[in-house]
Fold:
Amino acid sequence: MTKIMHTFKVFLSIMCFIVLFPLESLATTWDRAGIESFAKTYLESKIAPPLDGKIAFNVVNIDPRVIIKPCQVPLKANIPENAQRRNVNIKITCNDSMPWQLYLPTKVKRTFAVVAATNNIEKGVILSEQNIGIIYVASNKIRGEKLNEIKAILGSKAKRRITKGNMINRQNVCLVCKGDTITIIAKSKNFMIKTKGTALSSGNINQQIRVKNSRSGRVINPKISAVNQVTITL
Structure:
């Protein structure tokens, strides 16, 4: 009997402890930094960066006046279906017995790889890895065509002065520039010949320009095939 009474007392003690011990003590306590980090991690898993760029999330700090209660279950996050905008509201939810929710405004910054001048480039200067490179620019600051590969314009010349940090596109350069002495390649299925000529206009890859054959004096309209080189198919 004594043993039974002892067991019963232990059982009552455990039950009293469970009743008196607040459930909130078993819950996870979140601070502002933790919730902001949780929101950022969620965004990184849901919104992919552009193929040729990067993406960054700036979660607005939670108002210090907001009281954050503990949560007995894992937090949940949700964003609108149209999450491709620059501003997104993340909904953070605690679905325990005393549910609560927060909305965190977040700025989404997408940047894209573009070719830009790493030094001031004067008109007529040949572009090389010493004066051009890749930088990342916000999508709303890109105007017109963008180049994201240096090799596409290596060896070309600046048509005008390009300031350090400025984006470079095909409007700024020419693979063949007016007045250049260039190689003319004339080819067919059976043969190929090379000769020299003078460019009468400027252009870039696959563009047709006017060229004067130095040997015959004839003006032709070949396509640019490389730096200071044009090709005409016979």
